[in-house]
Amino acid sequence: MSNENINNSQEIYADENAPKHQDKLIRCITSDGAVIAIAADTTNIVHMGKKLHHTSSVATAALGRLLTASSIMGVMLKQSNAAVTLRINGGGPLGAVVAVANSKGNCRGYVENPQTETEYYPNGKINVAKAVGKDGVINVMRDYGTGEPYIGVCPLFSGEIAEDITSYYAVSEQIPTVCALGVLINKEDGEVLLAGGMLIQLLPGATDDTIAKIEENITKLEPITTMLAKGMSILDICKKALDGYEVEVLDEQPIDYVCGCSRERVVKAISKLTDDEIRSLADEKGYAVANCHFCNKNHRFTKGQLEEIIRERAAAREQAEN
Question: How much is the average pLDDT of 167-177?
Answer without folding.
Answer: 94
